[in-house]
Design a protein that fits this description.
Elements lengths: L7 H15 L5 E6 L1 H6 L1 H13 L2 E6 L2 H8 L6 E4 L2 H9 L7 E11 L14 H11 L3 E3 L5 H12 L9 E3 L7 H11 L2 E5 H7 L7 E3 L6 E8 L10 H12 L4 H7 L2 H4 L5 E2 L2 H9 L1
Parallel strand pairs: 1-2, 1-3, 5-6, 5-7
Antiparallel strand pairs: 3-9, 4-7, 4-8, 4-9, 4-10
Length: 285
């Protein structure tokens, strides 16, 4: 990976120390991104091309959505890329961010052992699949770190009317390390888990777990941009952050990179563009 990856407390400490040195100058943006897009490489691809186009450097810290928003609430970040609507709305309501701007989406899937002891393979409802896993109490690994992935997973359990607990439901102690670490651990355990498709695609040659449940509308994973509020944090580089937002949401720039990303390696994109500008363009075609 071209750029450094930080997580948890170390991420905040390094970010805060560095931010104090660069806020006075323009031409530099600090982005707090949820880990999935960082691990996939799309964040670096977007940052690199934006710098080539504009001369403005972007550097990121990677953390689960909850942690990324917490870091950003300290005033050391210019822009946030996250995927948990309820947490995003609270971040804005508390005055830390200005607005939610649609950027892209992919989807979550439920993976598990090929033997499929819960018998969920091919089910079209993720909620029904989770109910069967709970009924049979087969091993399920949860990231458990208040990340966007974890929030989405817990939301589906809630819709299923289940509060998962017991020896069959394991909260991975290193879940804060991201979806890749969680998926690799689940593979070692031969268990089920809830994960984004991009992570599964990037690790499919290293794991044995197949996708068992997919293509349910409830599994869509929307990723948003939130500029940090300059009224609350006057030192934030709001001007350049908004230039980056405009570039990211442009159908011929950031959105074009998103739609093509992963095609050469996987034969399909890892993410799908979702900016208002992209949607408007598709509506005209």
């Amino acid at each position: 990976m071209k750029k450094s990856f930080f997580s948890g407390l170390l991420s905040f400490i390094l970010c805060a120390a560095f931010a104090t040195q660069v806020y006075a100058a323009r031409g530099f943006i600090l982005l707090a991104s949820t880990i999935g897009p960082v691990d996939s490489g799309v964040v670096s691809a977007l940052e690199d091309q934006f710098e080539k186009d504009t001369g403005i450097r972007v550097r990121h810290v990677g953390a689960g959505t909850g942690a990324a928003l917490k870091i950003s609430s300290k005033g050391n970040i210019d822009l946030v890329m996250v995927h948990a609507k309820s947490l995003e709305e609270k971040f804005i309501a508390d005055g830390y961010g200005t607005e939610r701007i649609p950027l892209m989406y992919n989807d979550f899937v439920i993976v598990g052992p090929a033997s499929d002891p819960a018998g969920i393979k091919g089910m079209t409802s993720a909620i029904d699949a989770l109910q069967k896993i709970a009924e049979k109490q087969v091993a399920f690994i949860s990231r458990g770190d208040k990340s966007g992935t974890n929030v989405a997973e817990l939301g589906l359990w809630e819709k299923a009317g289940i509060k998962p607990s017991g020896s069959w439901y394991e909260v991975y102690e290193k879940g804060k390390e991201g979806n890749a670490a969680t998926l690799l651990y689940t593979d070692q355990k031969g268990a089920y888990t809830f994960i984004d498709r991009a992570t599964w695609l990037s690790l499919q040659d290293k794991i044995k777990l197949p996708i068992l449940v997919e293509k349910d509308e409830a599994l869509l994973n929307y990723i948003s941009l939130i500029p940090v509020n300059p009224k609350k944090f006057p030192k934030a580089n709001y001007e350049d952050a908004m230039k980056f937002v405009t570039w990211l949401t442009d159908p011929n720039k950031g959105q074009k990179i998103i739609v093509d990303f992963g095609m050469d390696k996987y034969g399909s994109p890892l993410f799908f563009p979702n900016s208002p500008e992209w949607q408007a363009l598709q509506g005209k075609q």
